[in-house]
Design brief:
Blueprint lengths: L1 E6 L6 H12 L2 E4 H11 L5 H20 L4 E6 L7 H12 L5 E7 L2 H7 L14 H10 L12 E4 L5 H20 L1
Helix pairs in contact: 1-7, 2-3, 3-4
Length: 183
């Protein structure tokens, strides 16, 4: 199973695009917030137990998915450069060792748009950041705008494109890359 990694800062539109891409393509969605929400039910955010459980959930999903030969999995993730680079490399290596393709898409928009979106009601469905102050704190502490290096990420600007248009851009890019690989 190939992996489509949608990454970017909170409120950039990763999950909304993932859902639109899934409707368009039939690909499965595993958004990072699923492992976080479950872990938060049992442990405090940032504790050793929280981290271990959320990483174990993701690892098992990736292990099972990478072993499948057909289909594509969309994974959404808030990448902080450079501290998350070893984790992203580990995920990519796990899929590539199984002969899977990995496609990276950096989902971005302007900070002003992020600050508007962070308190939207759609973010209530999960335990996502919903405060402008909290988002400003995270943006000031982490580099959420640098792409994953040396992996050929494609930038998708959600300030200029609707979620549906962003999903179409990604879907067409994957189809083109698949055709290139088959040639």
């Amino acid at each position: 199973m190939d992996l489509i990694l949608l990454y970017g800062p909170p409120a950039a539109g990763k999950l909304t695009i993932a859902r639109a891409l899934s409707k368009l393509s039939g690909y499965r969605v595993f958004h990072n917030q699923l492992s976080i929400d479950l872990s938060l039910e049992l442990f405090e955010f940032g504790t050793k137990e929280f981290q271990e459980l959320s990483e174990t959930i993701r690892s098992k999903v990736f292990e099972i998915s990478a072993g499948k030969k057909e289909g594509k999995l969309i994974f959404t993730f808030c990448y902080a450069h450079p501290c998350d680079l070893p984790y992203v490399d580990k995920i990519i290596d796990q899929f590539e060792k199984c002969g899977c393709k990995v496609y990276l898409y950096q989902i971005l928009c302007g900070k002003d748009i992020l600050l508007k979106r962070v308190s939207e009601p759609s973010r209530n469905d999960h335990k996502k950041i919903q405060s402008v102050d909290k988002l400003n704190e995270i943006i000031s502490r982490y580099d959420l705008f640098t792409p994953v290096p040396d992996r050929g990420s494609v930038l998708v600007d959600t300030g200029a494109n609707s979620p549906e248009k962003s999903a179409e851009i990604i879907f067409e890019d994957i189809k083109e890359k698949s055709r290139t690989i088959l040639r």
